[in-house]
Amino acid sequence: MWYEQPAKVFAEALPIGNGRLGAMVFGRTDNETLLLNEDSVWYGDIPSTERINPDALKSQPEIRRLLAEGKVREAERLLRFAVHATPRDQYPYQPLATLNIETLNSSGGEATTGYRRDLDLQTAIGGVRYTRGGTQYLREVFASFPAQILVVRLTAVGTGTLSFAARLSRRPFEGKASRPAVNTVAMEGQAGPRGPRYAALVQAAFQDGGTCEVLGDTLLVEGARSVVLLVAGNTTFRGSKTPKEDGLRQFASAKAKGYDALRAEHIADYQNLHGRVALDLGGDDLSLLPTNKRLERLRTDKEASDTALESQFFQYGRYLLIASSRPGSLAANLQGIWNDSFTPPWECKYTININIEMNYWPAEVTNLSECHGSLFDLIEIARKQGEVVARKMYDCGGFCIHHNTTAWGDATPTGPQVWHFIWPMGGAWLATHLWEHYLFTRDTKFLQDRAYPILRDCSRFILDYLYEQPDGTMVTGPGSSPELGFKLPDGYLGGAGLGVTMDMALAREIFAATLAASETLGKDAALRAEIDSKKKRLAPYRVGKHGQLQEWQ
Length: 553
Prior knowledge:
The protein has helices at 56-68, 72-83, 243-257, 259-274, 291-300, 307-324, 355-360, 362-365, 373-394, 418-421, 426-441, 444-465, 501-521, 525-535, and strands spanning 2-3, 14-17, 21-25, 31-38, 97-103, 112-120, 125-132, 135-144, 149-157, 162-169, 176-178, 184-190, 197-208, 211-215, 218-224, 226-235, 350-351, 404-405, 467-468, 474-475, 479-480, 486-487, 493-494, 496-497. The chain has 14 helices and 24 strands. Helix content is 34%, strand content 24%.
């Protein structure tokens, strides 16, 4: 993917990441910007146990009665005020820092030629190159999973040299600046009162020529032919009490290897995953055109085709999953790990009524099974809080999660509308990912240790959550079809219902997976019998007058 100009806005920058640590590279010539993220920089959270509405459980029978009688408006009034979590909203994922690299020897009047900004999907290395005043300036940026750092190499080829100032910022929530080692600057702070403490560091680790010093909170390099900057970011989220010292240890390990070894190690690690799948759709080779011009060609010429770009887009999706979800990292959130805002859209959470599932759809089918594990870790974290929510909100066993969660696994209902937050089937949809992983890998140890306990407890919740209708059929509810509503004859826009098709489909799928897993492992015959009994009584799907599958009963 390559372009003839720097990124003007965040969405045009190129993402790099090692699962845990990421950056958006703008590729500016005089004032380069790398927006840095670390996957655990979440504003301090409130546990589910503190957010459960005290009126939720006692209101459930009345809500079901009202929905059964078709009194949606009255039922949703109770749902809005008696069931919604208190406080209502979950906290956001936030940026780690911004690394600013300000060029100090730019003449300003000299023309810049031969500009190119690219991201090589074969090596996961971002590049910038341009020529000015007879000197070619080169940059390479990559996020190393083995070394757990970002690496930036700047080079001047020709008569000119490199002179720049590198500084970490986090406006308007600047952290404490320090100089913890030679040619190193650091910034430390805390992401909210209950949030993790973080530390971001940058160090000029390797340098050819020139000088390097630290003045104030800024790293100054003058007259160098090449410089390698190492960037670290760590928090206390995973139990460490010394995120700054963690970064210094990562730097020491990386310096002992040297730049060439770091680069080679990074490429080998990345290609072990990315290189497993090739996709050739044929077509003309249009790689000499910048990526944005190839896209524009398809937009403006209805007869044009670019199947090579389509296969590249497929590989870009795989690249993004590798870059935002690796063993030991948190799961990829709404924006992967790339977020430039302290108040991001939808708090940049884990939206589990579709978005996080979409992030992970490529995991098994494109041979990236290892990248799926971070999602399984999140499910296990949320399951613990979901057990409390299932019991205290619905008087049900097992566990449930609603349509959003956080790094701490919040399981309570949150969101602006009833047809967002009244959906306790989030855990069920997530559990299907564990079953899919087993179907692809046939790993019976994984099935026994990780997948089956979650499938079993998901089924237990659904079994208790099912509600018997007068005709003897069983439905879930109250629930909703996530983010979809309906209009009643009087114009009222509603969303809540009993036996919503989305929920019933998930109930059938979880029951089927639990039965198969239980039989494979030879466990829980009594549970299988109960599932068999209630599965037969599930209300059938309904077909509407247009031949469509109805979303609501």
